[in-house]
Task: structure prediction
Amino acid sequence: MRFLFKAFIVLLLLNTLLFFVHYKDSSIVTAKNKDETSYDQEIEIVHRANELLIRHHFTNLSTNRLEINWPKTSEKRTCRVEDADSCVRLNEETTAFLEGEETSQSISYVIPKEPGGDEDILLRSIFAKIHKATPQATVLHIIDEVHEGGMWITGLQQVGNQTLNLVNYTLFSGSGAVSDLYWQKQQLPNESNEYVTVYGADSMEFIERFDKLFTQLNAAHMDIVLNDQNQNIASSRFLVTHPTELSHALEQFAVNQFYMNYDEVSIDRFTAEVMTALLLDNEFDFTLATNAVKQLRESLTPTQVTRFIERFEEKARELNEEKTMAETVDELIEEVTDYKTSFFTKNSQLEEGFYPFLLENPKKIVVSDGESLENHAIVKDNNIYYPIEEVMEDLAYDVFSNEHSLYIEGHEKKYRFPLKRQFYVFNDRRFNIKTIPFEQFNEKFYFEESAMLRIFQLNIENRDEEINLTPTSG
Result:
């Protein structure tokens, strides 16, 4: 048996050499001059009934100390001795590669696997990583000793496959990282281009249908498995889905790509969906983002939207852990509009519901040249709203409400505004109006500007740094 296995290894190496020549010629391998935040890797997987044996080779490493992020489920973490220097930089605790001149290091580990999985197997987050660094190119070998046939999915492009008496062998290669593995017993036909390989019936039709999206994403190669029998799966580089649910699955894949691009920043689901839709200029049917994108495009000019997206793409290079992405995006909106907003920050904190897109006028509000009010005017849907309680209290009115109405009462003038009906009462006289003149923001009542000036007989003076409201004479 050992002789046969050694013979197979020789054959395997010959085949691998041929495949690797093809891989190298395809210009996927990255340049030798690399910075300390990137590296290349070659991963060998031996698939057994109850475990995966993984031999992981890192190349083009920085000479600085590099922390290793091991898979949580990994066992038997150790050096992989290929030659005298193959793990000379690995510390005794096997937690890091120490400073050193050797730019290639190897480790090995075992991922336990539940027996079974007759129809499909999903293995998530099973590969070691270098902390705060990104693989630029990956070569991945799968030696399947279980010998059950089927097909392996990684997201990388499959370069070759060999079926022998003792094992099945598959070789993958491509740019970027890989984190998950999927296997299914049913083999499917496939079509591919530089962005995607689609497995299943009518695969070319799906490639042509979503070609624009793949081009926009400009992401590393991905796999899509169209299968109406197995579970729906979304990974960073592959999808398994029913053909009728592909559109939704691709939307989620686009968001996953967004997370991957900014994996060192705190990103909430709302911000990820909205920014994905804006960056791709795609009418995604996201649960959270659809209404948000609509409000943004209606509230900002086309020039402002374009500038906002440009500034985000520029700022993305500087994003770090000091701020959440929601806070950064709010600041960018202020930069292009000169108005403050907490739209992304507030929505990122909501478990349900939706906070509207509001812009805060930076000018202070004063009443009859008095002290500035605590709150500012708010812009929503191109209408300006004022904090009516503060305004009217500075004019010696009492402002209060109950579940039915808003009351604004002075010594001689008394107003009642039903919360849900289009009229108001002024000194016992009813006046019909076309729209309700106020809204509630942050549990406070705000009056629309033109209605406030007309109903309460106020004048407005816009100054460079403040807005002055005064009663009309008489």
About this structure: The longest helix spans residues 2-25. The longest strand covers residues 134-144. The CA atoms of residues 163 and 174 lie 22 Å apart. The chain is about 25% helix and 30% strand.
